Predict the 3D structure of the following.
Amino acid sequence: MLSWSRRRVRALAGAAGLAVVLALSAGCTGAEKSPDAARSFVSEGLDEASSAVATSQLAVEQARAHRSFATTVDVTLEDQQADLVHATRHLAILVAPDVTVARLRDRALAATNDATAAVTAARDALAHGRSLAAPSARLDRAADELDAVTGQVEAS
Amino acid sequence: MSKLLGAALGILTAIGGFLDIGDLVTSSVVGSRFGLSLAWATVLGVIGICLFAQMSGRVAAVSGRATFEIVRERLGPRVGGANLVASFAINLLTLTAEVGGIALSLQLASSVDHRLWVPVALVAVWLVLWRVKFQVLENVAGLLGLCLVVLAVAVFLLGPDWGDLAHQALAPVVPSSEGTAQYLYYAVALFGAAMTPYEVFFFSSGAVEEGWTPRDLAQSRVNVLVGFPLGGLLSLSIAALGAIVLLPQGIQTNALSQVALPVAEAGGKLALVVLILGMVAATFGAALETGLSSGYTLAQYFGWSWGKKRRPAQAARFHLTMMISLLVGAGILMTGVDPVKVTEFSVVFSAVALPLTYVPILLVANDPEYMGDKVNGRLTNLLGSLMLVVVVVAAVAAIPLMIVTGAGG
């Protein structure tokens, strides 16, 4: 009974060792994708960022039209900041398979960073009771930039 | 006259108590991504919960015993025990999501981080469970939950293209931007959200708490068959708001704050106040129901003294279970986990556990030893069996779809 248990323990240890080796080998190449998969990966990040910017635009417009409360708009913008940070991280971890995808990823990263800054500026203006006209225009530009990069990814 | 008032109150609380955080989040996510093309899944879920809730209410009224007492006796301790473990775990996850929903709703009103609201919600829920009588807590939460009627009002205020909405709902197609797997995953999530098991535990245990007899069956049938479908309409209204306001702007819901945007767009600050009040009431009411359900399931299985009609000292283990469940739920939320993610997982895992809840109810409702001449009729059995097929398909498909889509994608 005891030797059977030892055999079982050894088999389990062997299986665990193999799993670790496989996981480590997978880790060496895990971030690199085929060009098509990489473009799709960039698109996912851009979609998330575009949704966050569109949400922020709507929330800011509601604040400007006095259709919502500053507290509610602030929570909405904070949620969108978290989404933009997530989208930025999503793009940043991509190891590009070629120079074309690398350029697209870098433009997408720049666009999501601009978008994050635009939402942050809107929160600042809201918190200090300043006019939301400038942050609103900045959000519009961030949305245009994200659309432009999305168009490039789709065309490539 | 008092009977009429009682019936009206029952229907109103059924409407107000129908929605919880699972419905609020899932319906909005679905509306913003699929429009009304998944309305059929909500309708199917409402039909299912109507069928089984009235069945479990009838079992409680006729036998004078709640679901889990009979499940253990009818299926034996092993099968009953497996049922208990799954149901208790899903209920705990749902309780966690509901407490998170209270905190997120209060954050919307205050801009104070939801984690600071979690302990407040925990204490408030526990105090109500400890001190307030069953009927009072059921009626007050249900009536305040009626504020969510503002969701349906908002749809009208936005003046949508009704023909387009009807076309989306009646001729459903998978949007080109989404895959079939994603579509089916959210169909299962909507179905799970409508048929969450705690609703049945609460309904049948509540019937025992309120001392229903066979004479109350007509009233309970009206509450379920009128109240729940009207509650389901509110669920469809959330999806419609997503389809009208969010989908055209490319907004995908992944936070509770986005659920409020279409309502503010339609009705401004006043509608927003009513919505936030309704969200707090709906999630608070559901937290009470899931909190009670955690005590009900465990106490009924082990044969402990249970119920709000008894003083806490007379049902100590029942109250202790509720208290520990609340503490565990709040502890999970304090780790910083996103309450919306907890909600999304809770509705899908609810779908996985559905057969464990609904198969025993169908068996007991057909057992003349418990039910006498009040066993299911042919039509109820036919519909119940068909629904059970859907329930099993949803339960089997839920986890594979979750893996394939990366939890919805």
Notes: The mean pLDDT of chain A is 89. The two ends of chain A are 64 Å apart (CA to CA). Chain A touches chain B at residues 47-48, 50-51, 54-55, 57-59, 62, 66-72, 74-76, 79-80, 83 (CB under 8 Å). The helical segments of chain A are 2-29, 35-64, 70-92, 99-127, 133-155.
